[in-house]
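Box 3.1. Reading complex inputs
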Amino acid sequence: MPELPEVETVVAGLRSRLEGRRVRELVFLSPHLSRKQSFSVLSPEVYRGKKIERIWRRGKMIIFSFSGGCGLLIHLKMTGQLYLCPSEQFPDKHTHARMTFSGLKEELRFRDIRKFGFLDCLRMPEILRRVNSELGPEPLALNLAEFRDLLGRHGRKKIKAWLLDQKIIAGIGNIYSDEILFRAGIKPDRPAGELSLDEVRKLSRAMKSVLRKAIELKGSSISDYVDASGEKGRFQQKHLVYDREGQPCLRCRKSAIRREKIAGRSSFFCPSCQR
DNA sequence: AGCCCATCCTGTCCGC
DNA sequence: TGCGGACAGGATGGGC
């Protein structure tokens, strides 16, 4: 669910409601969020009375910084949700953490059906170290020369796997990689380093326009994605290939959309329009 | 270096 | 209506 545009939408909603707020308390409802990936070192007690200074996004990661130097590092993975809801609403069994605030009747909930996501309590330097070592550059901040250079540096990788690799470029997931490659007219299994200059240009443009448009439409709601205030996105109405196996291509109106496993993920493409 | 696969979880959907 | 298997927006680690 949550790729760069969805995470951006969630963060924008949280920022406007929560920046400057003082924490009343942070409570974990599940003993473990994710056995493998959680690396919390701080006790939830540390956050009591601290002020939220800033909330932002890096790739698909969400970062909260608080007064006193502590922070939260959050990843929604496949089914994670981060949203504000009335405190009196009873949390269900998939709600793993809640944070309440002084002078606010709503509280922040972290909910994740599959428990792949994490919400780690860490000091800011540790968060920044992790984010910078684990993530490549932001796709919307790359110019053409940098983008081209980056393609060349991992040139043997299939372009689909390249786009999905967070260490190379941060924030693109399975839906947007397919939508980007379709609009660029490039087959997902092409080696990244073998694209012509014209294709590199098309790919760069498609990447930015798809991400920007998706942010503008507040993300894609495939099954149950909702933003910080429970609103659905509308970019799913603009999907041209994702989950359209067997249906006619919306560009050539002739070929059927194909589905193949590439980079370990279902990949949708038009065999005529993408070369 | 890069690919495929299994794995962490729970829920849903589809075919029999 | 039940049951088993495949699959799902992510990411990692092992083996080849």
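In summary: The radius of gyration of chain A is 20 Å.
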